[in-house]
Design a protein that fits this description.
There is one protein chain. The chain starts with 5 loop residues before the first helix and ends with a helix. Helix 1 packs parallel to helix 2. It has a single domain, classed as Zincin-like (2-Layer Sandwich). The protein has a four-stranded mixed sheet with strand order 1-3-2-4, with helices on one face. A hairpin with a 4-residue loop joins strand 2 and strand 3. The chain is of the alpha+beta class. The longest helix has 17 residues. The chain is built from five helices and four strands; from the N terminus they run H-E-E-E-H-E-H-H-H. Bound molecules: zinc ion (ZN). Zinc ion binds next to helix 2 and helix 3.
């Protein structure tokens, strides 16, 4: 996967958002430590472009998943974390991986991990998904 397709992937994710009437806002001037967040009920995603843990595309796919796969009722504010390995966060990480692989099938699970800066502990899932689709 080369850098030149990053814009196309982002475009596809933005189309998913538009199709489901999800508002995505890039919030400027946040600290690099401030994670992205989303609110299911409001169909609102607040992205921090300067946050560096994981790629923007992976994080956006994760936040989109909260809204697409949530029950639509929760007004809880979900904050992105690359460290939480269970519950809804794990579930949305998996949905994000599925979504990104559907957009562009990588040449290997390693290039996928590297391109999207996915936390290493998700490698087994990435590998199994790749094998399923390849
Ligand atoms: Zn989350």
């Amino acid at each position: 996967m080369t850098e030149s397709i990053r814009d196309d992937i982002l475009y596809d994710l933005e189309r998913v958002a538009a199709l489901h009437h999800i508002t995505v806002v890039d919030v400027d001037r946040l600290s690099m430590e401030t994670p992205d967040s989303s609110i299911e009920k409001s169909k609102l995603i607040l992205m921090n472009p300067t946050y560096e843990k994981c790629s923007y595309e992976f994080r956006l796919a994760h936040e989109l998943s909260h809204i697409l796969f949530g029950n639509g009722c929760s007004d809880e504010v979900y904050q992105f974390s690359p460290y939480i390995k269970r519950g809804k966060e794990l579930e949305m990480h998996k949905h994000a991986i599925d979504m990104l692989m559907d957009i562009e099938l990588p040449t290997s699970p390693f290039t996928f991990m590297d391109f999207y800066k996915i936390p290493y502990w998700l490698f087994d899932y990435v590998k199994s998904k790749f094998i399923e689709l390849a």
